[in-house]
Amino acid sequence: MANRSQRTLLFTGAYAEEDQSGVCIYEFNEDSGELKLLDEVSGIKNPTFLNVDADNRRLYAIGEMAEQGGKAGEVVSFEIDPAAGKLIERNRVRSVSSSTCHIQRDESSKYLIVSSYHGGLVGLLSIDEEGLAGELLDEKKHSDLVPVREAQQARAHSAFYSPDGKYVFVQDLGLDKILSYTINPDTNELSFHGETQLEEGAGPRHLAFHPSGVYAYVINELNSSVTVLRYIQDEGRLAVLETISTLPVDFDGESYCAEIAVSEDGKTVYGSNRGHDSIVVFSVHEDTGYLSPVQYISTEGGHPRHFTLMPGGKFMVVANRDGNNLVLFNVDPEDGKLAFTGYTVSQSKPVCVKPAVFQL
Ligand SMILES: O=C1O[C@H](COP(=O)(O)O)[C@@H](O)[C@H](O)[C@H]1O
């Protein structure tokens, strides 16, 4: 039964022109899985990634701004009114000098980190006392930190904090590395800490930690695989354990991975395949963190660039960029397998789905 003192909302980001709605808010029905559109926001060019701070009722969307013939990154801060189901824009700031593809926030909501695929860099921004995106505090270009071969190009794709909050792991798709950083709270600087080398041509894109905090899983866009990592907490390092394909053995078409998630109970890992247009479901070996595929299920639409497990754990929402739809799946509580609910919502080029529960 739905709890009337709280409301679960789903925020979506999309590829959109400024005159199109790029960010939408839906109310999520935890019993039926249905999504009801409450509000839509236009005026941002390509809000392709979002970060939601439910405690402080803030949403941060990345965008693009034209600058000297190129594109710079932008962060737009919104106040969330969960009772009304509305977003109120509070400010927008320029972030880094190239367009961005991901935005992350620390637990204490002090910093935002943007990743720029096209610039091969990460940017650290402050969050002010009103919870709004502030100034660019630091910027690190990966090509200044690690050797880059002639055929390579740095492509920072996402940043994730370690479970203890001490390190930031940045996936670089072009260098086949995960670069780690610490943030100095006195100087507000990112300092390069180390790197994890992945297989050549892997293309690490997104990362997800296991709830135990012992393992992490990185999804590799270019060779359609997941690498299982062990988090060595004392050293702030991710060590490679094994790499496993996200595709069925008999598939020989073109496909590129996108998103990865671990179930709350830590028993299942999910990954998306753009091309095969599927979600791969892996069961997690309790003692080793290793993965075994148990299902490949169609996403009922092309190019599943993002997906999310919904609060409560009963449903998954998949955002199909080329299917122009959000697709709802039931999650089996026993084995984590997915089943299409038959329910889809039309939306133009959705590429980010972020749920949050609000106390009213
Ligand atoms: O996953 C991907 O992301 C990058 C970055 O996205 P963009 O919208 O900022 O360009 C994209 O370029 C790459 O082709 C894609 O596979």
UniProtKB/TrEMBL annotation:
What's a GO cellular component annotated to this UniProt protein? cytosol
Gene Ontology MF: a single term: 6-phosphogluconolactonase activity
- SUPFAM superfamilies hit by this protein: C-terminal (heme d1) domain of cytochrome cd1-nitrite reductase
- InterPro entries per the UniProt record, alphabetical: Cycloisomerase_2, Haem_d1_sf, Lactonase_7-beta_prop, WD40/YVTN_repeat-like_dom_sf
Question: Out of the domains of life, which is the source?
Answer: Bacteria
Q: By its UniProt entry, which PANTHER family does this protein fall under? A: 6-PHOSPHOGLUCONOLACTONASE (PTHR30344:SF1), 6-PHOSPHOGLUCONOLACTONASE-RELATED (PTHR30344)
Q: Which family does it belong to?
A: Belongs to the cycloisomerase 2 family.
Query: What name does the UniProt record give this protein?
Result: 6-phosphogluconolactonase
